[in-house]
Amino acid sequence: MEGVKSVDSAFPDETHAIRASAAPLSRESRIGQACIEALIDRRSVPPRHLQAPGPDARELNRIVAAGLAAPCHGRLPQFSVIAIPPENRGHLGDVFVAGLRESEPDPAAERIERLREKAMHAPTLLLLVCHVFPALPEIPREEQIASAGAALGAIVTAADLLGYGAMAVSGQHIRSKAIREAFRLARHDFPLAFIAIGTPSRRRNACAARRAPAEVLTTWRPDMTGSF
Ligand SMILES: Cc1cc2nc3c(=O)[nH]c(=O)nc-3n(C[C@H](O)[C@H](O)[C@H](O)COP(=O)(O)O)c2cc1C
């Protein structure tokens, strides 16, 4: 597991035993507990605070593999991940500006400048494209999009588990014609989000409060009143 900063390296024997035997994790398993805590502790890091190094090719492969393990009804090829390497970020900036001009033909110079800067943020930038298959009544569109969303969550979390910072950002113009054309999106494709990954340049902010489990976990009863 060289170079991998995951819970694997913290619990090598346990991880190996679990993978070798395919046995389920016991409820007391240290690795299971560590994984849960890592999931709960995950925080996004804004792209402007992500610097080199980003994940290497092997790590990126594992991150995408985590996305591919997301629940997916029918195991459809629900998404693609397009990496935008540093040498193409200038061109991505041009695409962002073209997207802005679709709604604002004459934007202020500083807005253009800011968009071009955004295209340069984070050493690793991915575009997650969702492929919707409209002719599948048994797997409706919302389930298909949910699968791509689950993949997005797994990708961001896997990057976090490897010790990187990551954040999903759609930005203002992701649904522009300019983006669709630049990434050669087919009719039923849509870009879900960019995913920025890199080494956090500063400590993570104290997190914005998340809802407590008790706020979202309720029990259904046939005679209940109100809504969830
Ligand atoms: C599809 C998608 C698109 C998003 N786009 C943006 C965005 O454009 N700008 C932004 O500030 N946050 C965006 N977010 C939210 C952040 O990625 C992040 O989840 C949020 O700031 C909460 O922070 P946390 O992940 O640390 O809980 C997006 C999330 C998703 C799932």
CATH fold naming of the largest domain: NADH Oxidase
Number of individual domains: 2
Tell me which CATH architecture of the largest domain applies here.
3-Layer(aba) Sandwich
**CATH domain class of the largest domain:** Alpha Beta
Radius of gyration: 20 Å
Low-confidence stretches are 1-10
The quaternary state of the protein chains shown equals single chain
What's the total count of β strands?
5
* Small molecules in complex: flavin mononucleotide
Features:
228 residues, binds flavin mononucleotide, 2 domains, 5 strands, alpha+beta, globular, 5-stranded antiparallel β-sheet, disordered N terminus, NADH Oxidase, single chain
Describe this structure in words.
The longest helix has 21 residues, at 141-161. With 228 residues, this protein is of the alpha+beta class. Helices cover 42% and strands 14% of the residues. It has nine helices and five strands; from the N terminus they run αααβαβααβαβαβα. Strands 1, 2, 3, 4 and 5 form a five-stranded antiparallel beta sheet that branches. It folds into two domains: 1-41, no CATH class; 44-201, NADH Oxidase (3-Layer(aba) Sandwich). Flavin mononucleotide binds next to strand 4 and strand 5.
